[in-house]
Amino acid sequence: MTSAAVEILGLGLGILGWVGVILACGLPMWQVSAFIDVNIVVAQTIWEGLWMTCVVQSTGQMQCKVYDSILALRPEVQAGRALTVVVALLGLVALMVTVVGAQCTNCIRPGRMKSRVVIAGGAIYILCGVLVLIPLCWFANIVISDFYDPTVPSSQKREMGAALYIGWAATALLLFGGCLICCCSCSQRDESSFPVKYSAPRRPTSNGEYDKKNYV
């Protein structure tokens, strides 16, 4: 597989990861009700996300309410909001930078500058994966700690929702895609750093014969 194909593959994975982060950010299923003890059979399920909380009835009806105050939110929710929004914006920047420096575009002339621009795009994708991993692991740690904490009532215990798993999958795509972009660009730059030298053509002497120094 050529470096251009690897670069396109990395860009595609980065775009998928970026879309996955946006999807996980908007979904309200970061924490869901845990059906344990007295809550094994309930008529409603509670979903808690970064932007709203939803109550799903057993009949299929769902009612969602956006959080009233930003300052009254828990620290992990505030951090999750900030980091996911930053990652969404950085993902757009990474896409534009990578496309500008990609081998399949002519925005920049081929050379070291073009490779550096692509490496910068891949590095931004990797940074996005690291940043979005922070709120995901923070939420997961809180959910697991409260679930096994005996002082927390059963009605307040939560389980990890689908948004966390989508976020982890998006993180893997961002990290893998960014690494592919950086690796193929580095290898291309290394290959181009060794220019090919051609010897001067042999010229005959005045008597029509080739000079003997051409054979030394």
Q: Class, according to the CATH hierarchy?
A: Mainly Alpha
**Strand-residue proportion:** 5-15%
Give the termini separation.
41 Å
Number of strand segments: 5
Q: Could you name the CATH topology? A: Butyryl-CoA Dehydrogenase, subunit A, domain 3
Shape: elongated
Rg from alpha-carbon coordinates: 28 Å
SSE ordering: HEEEEHHEH
- Poorly predicted spans: 190-198, 210-216
List the total number of helices.
4
Structural class: alpha+beta
| Arithmetic mean pLDDT | 82
Q: What is shown here, in short?
A:
With 216 residues, the protein is an alpha+beta fold.
Describe, in plain words, how this protein is organized in 3D.
The structure is a single chain. The protein is α+β, with helices and mostly antiparallel strands. The chain has a single domain, classed as Butyryl-CoA Dehydrogenase, subunit A, domain 3 (Up-down Bundle). Helix content is 55%, strand content 10%. The chain is built from 4 helices and 5 strands; from the N terminus they run H-E-E-E-E-H-H-E-H. It has a 5-stranded antiparallel β-sheet with strand order 4-3-2-1-5. Strand 3 and strand 4 form a beta hairpin. Helix 1 runs parallel beside helix 3 and helix 2 packs antiparallel against helix 3. The longest helix is centred in the middle third of the chain and has 36 residues. The C terminus is likely disordered. This is Claudin. It comes from Erythrocercus mccallii. One of its GO terms (molecular function) is structural molecule activity. Its main location: other. It is a multi-pass membrane protein.
